[in-house]
Amino acid sequence: MARIYKICPRGLWREAEAAGRFAGAPIDRQDGFIHLSTAAQVAETAARHFAGQDDLLLIAVDPEALGAALRYEPSRGGDLFPHLYGPLSLDAVTSVDALPLGADGRHVFPAGLLPA
């Protein structure tokens, strides 16, 4: 199954690494689940919710490792987004990459993640 993604401020992710799990960003805790995106959704998520923000990380997650706590639910325009009801175990994380801002002010994703 394809990876899913969490965009996270570096400092918040470092706290998760120290704790051994990610309990969510403030918006996640407010909404009662951790917001995630598919590869097809993550660039729009970055543009909508993280525009102009630097020092972010792109966390890749193996959805099969999340079990029944992962649900795909309708959100923007009826698209099904992955939502995790519970903490994100670091064991489910497959990679952590910097998500810098490019010269055009948009986030620069790791090579091969987004369609050309």
Question: What attributes does this structure have?
Answer:
116 residues; alpha+beta; ADP-ribosylation fold; 4-stranded antiparallel sheet; 3-stranded antiparallel sheet; 3 helices
Question: What would a concise description of this structure say?
Answer:
With 116 residues, this protein is an alpha+beta fold. The chain has helices at residues 10-19, 26-31, 42-49, and strands at residues 4-9, 21-22, 34-35, 37-38, 56-61, 70-74, 80-84, 88-89, 93-99. The strands form three sheets. A four-stranded antiparallel beta sheet has the order 4-1-5-9. Strands 3-7-6 form a three-stranded antiparallel beta sheet.
Named at the architecture level, the CATH assignment is: Alpha-Beta Barrel
The CATH homologous superfamily is named: Protein of unknown function DUF952
Radius of gyration: 13 Å
- Principal-axis shape: globular
User: Please, how many helices?
Assistant: 3
Provide the number of structural domains: 1
Oligomer: single chain
Through-space gap between termini? 21 Å
What composes the largest sheet?
4 strands, antiparallel
- State the CATH topology: ADP-ribosylation fold
Q: Structural class of the helix and strand makeup?
A: alpha+beta
Notes on the structure:
A 4-stranded antiparallel beta sheet has the order 4-1-5-9. Strands 3-7-6 form a 3-stranded antiparallel beta sheet. It starts with a strand and ends in a 17-residue tail after the last strand. A hairpin with a 5-residue loop joins strand 6 (70-74) and strand 7. The protein has helices at 10-19, 26-31, 42-49, and strands spanning 4-9, 21-22, 34-35, 37-38, 56-61, 70-74, 80-84, 88-89, 93-99. It is an alpha+beta fold and 116 residues long. Helix content is 21%, strand content 32%. It has one domain: Protein of unknown function DUF952 (ADP-ribosylation fold), CATH 3.20.170. The longest helix is centred in the N-terminal third of the chain and has 10 residues, at 10-19.
